[in-house]
Design the sequence.
């Protein structure tokens, strides 16, 4: 069965055995023209070379992952992190990425003040907003599951991310990920509140039972997330933006040949990336 993959991208972290050129060629070879670029692969290959290769293959980039973390308490360190994020916004613009994924970091060393850290993150995002507007790359706010609040991100609910988008205006947008949001009773409400214009890209994967560690996401269809219903919400609001498959999987998918992972990703995600005009029909 063939699928329309025009809205589908594979997040590069899903196939970490592939370098940047290998991922570009490997995805394109199987009919996927979208790639969510990861920062360390971009730095290894070079921004200019990545841009050139993308253009040669006629590929598109929904997002650049990830931002410099903001889990610092010293003012000078925060200033450095903001400057790094400005440079990352520049790099995202150069490769044509729609957004820079703002993974904001967890708690600063020796701090227990999560409310204060969330306030510092808000202030930093507001400081970054003018540069995001200038270069035409949005700040992608992805709420992470609360289990990551300590070390990876203090932005932990889709409602808080939506509220921040209200403050940031056209400099930012929402990036919901089913792994991080599926459990949240406000997930559907906040997706509908965001509407199609605020959602920059949408992440697929699955939640395994049991989950064996914090890098144990499932392939779409292997867990307990109701992807079909979630896609229905997106169709209802008229979302026409990108979908990304993003899998962290130390025990399974990262160990497989990337060609196999890509093939299965297309098979599993294909039904959930089609453009639906009305719910239940093409």
Sequence:
């Amino acid at each position: 069965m063939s699928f329309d993959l025009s809205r589908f991208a594979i997040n590069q972290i899903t196939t970490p055995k592939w370098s940047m050129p290998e991922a570009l060629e490997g995805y394109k070879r199987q009919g996927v023209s979208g790639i969510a670029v990861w920062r360390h692969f971009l730095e290894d290959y070079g921004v200019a070379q990545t841009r050139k290769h993308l253009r040669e293959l006629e590929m598109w980039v929904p997002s650049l992952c990830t931002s410099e973390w903001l889990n610092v308490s010293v003012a000078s360190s925060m200033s450095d992190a903001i400057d790094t994020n400005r440079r990352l916004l520049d790099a995202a613009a150069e490769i044509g990425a729609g957004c820079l994924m703002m993974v904001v970091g967890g708690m600063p060393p020796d701090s227990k003040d999560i409310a204060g850290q969330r306030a510092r993150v808000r202030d930093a995002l507001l400081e970054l907003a003018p540069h995001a507007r200038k270069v035409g790359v949005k700040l992608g706010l992805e709420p992470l599951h609360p289990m990551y609040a300590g070390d990876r991100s203090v932005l932990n609910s889709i409602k808080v991310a939506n509220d921040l988008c209200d403050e940031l205006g056209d400099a930012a947008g929402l990036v919901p990920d089913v792994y991080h949001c599926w459990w949240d009773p406000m997930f559907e409400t906040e997706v509908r509140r965001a509407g199609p214009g605020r959602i920059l890209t949408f992440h697929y994967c699955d939640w395994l039972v049991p989950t064996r560690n914090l890098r144990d996401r499932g392939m779409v269809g292997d867990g307990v997330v109701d992807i079909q219903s979630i896609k229905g919400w997106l169709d209802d609001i008229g979302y026409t933006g990108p979908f990304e498959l993003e899998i962290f999987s130390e025990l399974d998918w990262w160990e497989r040949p990337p060609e196999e992972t890509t093939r299965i990703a297309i098979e599993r995600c294909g039904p959930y990336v089609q453009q639906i005009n009305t719910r239940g029909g093409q």
User: Anything to note?
Assistant: The chain has one domain: 8-272.
